[in-house]
Design a protein that fits this description.
Layout (H helix, E strand, L loop, with lengths): L4 H7 L6 H8 L5 H31 L2 H24 L1 H28 L5 H11 L4 H14 L5 H11 L3 H16 L3 H56 L3 H29 L5
Length: 281
């Protein structure tokens, strides 16, 4: 993979945010290594795709030359899309992590606030939280802070600064930055976390209220357009079949509606509801 490092270094200036995105996404590769890996994958795709597309296009176009030229064009088009998706993959991971963090940060902040009320040192608070927190990505981020302190000998403030840089969520970054600022200024972290937990809980209640309203709208659309629409279509086609007397094509269409269309639409609807549910994405 080091063979592609010069090419990766040449195109690296076109991706100024890549280093930060890799760190926030938790991908333990340098920017050059990540781009080199992408170039290697592109080469594999090209080597595999070119002969396959050449045979397919030559068969349909009845000409090997036109088939070969068409396959090259198709491969370059696919490689362009692949590279765009690959370079933006860290942003996708950041978005997923950020959503999971934002769904649980209100409860995690309450837990942190409870731990700080025991007047334990901040490094001990992070250590206990990392062992018993159970808040997914937030626990992972706090565990990394605790590891930086215990294994690498960093002080709490330096470990928090590193955590702020790699935090995938804006809310988590804001929370950690607030803890860092309060600790450096000698303020009361317990009071800060209690106030922050109230704010996060208020935002979470707003999310739930908005979600309940959206869910009602989506259910009305689903029942009206999908369920009632399908029932009306089945009744109408059954009447037409009885009048016309030819029902083979109608039965095929009804089979498609009942056993393919409705389950597919229902699955998409369930996934969409799960995705927008606070804490369920």
């Amino acid at each position: 993979m080091t063979f592609f490092h010069p090419l990766a270094e040449a195109i690296l200036p076109y991706f100024p945010e890549l280093k930060s995105d890799l760190k926030r996404a938790g991908i333990r590769l340098s920017s050059v290594e990540f781009l080199s890996q992408g170039i290697l994958y592109m080469l594999f795709v090209f080597i595999i795709g070119l002969p396959i597309f050449s045979v397919i296009f030559a068969f349909f176009l009845k000409s090997f030359l036109f088939g070969f030229l068409s396959s090259i064009t198709t491969c370059f088009f696919i490689l362009s899309i692949f590279f765009i998706v690959y370079v933006n993959y860290p942003k996708l991971l950041i978005g997923q992590k950020s959503k999971r963090i934002d769904d649980q940060i209100s409860f995690a902040t309450v837990h942190l606030s409870t731990l700080t009320s025991t007047k334990l040192p901040l490094n001990k608070v992070f250590e206990i939280f990392s062992k018993f927190g159970g808040y997914g990505e937030i626990t992972n981020e706090i565990s990394r802070i605790s590891s930086d302190i215990k294994m690498f000998g960093l002080d709490v403030n330096t470990a928090l600064e590193r955590a702020v840089e790699r935090a995938p969520s804006k809310n988590l970054k804001e929370l950690l930055w607030g803890i860092l600022s309060t600790n450096m200024s000698g303020g009361d972290i317990e009071i800060y976390l209690k106030e922050k937990s109230r704010n996060f809980m208020s935002e979470y209640r707003t999310k739930l209220r908005d979600f309940s309203q959206q869910l009602g709208i989506y259910l009305e659309i689903y029942i009206t357009s999908v369920i009632l629409g399908a029932v009306f279509f089945l009744i109408l086609t059954s009447i037409i079949t009885g009048i016309a007397g030819t029902g083979e094509q109608i039965l095929t269409l009804q089979f498609f509606i009942i056993f393919l269309f409705l389950p597919l639409v229902s699955a998409v609807f369930i996934y969409m509801i799960k995705f927008i549910t606070p804490g369920g994405g």
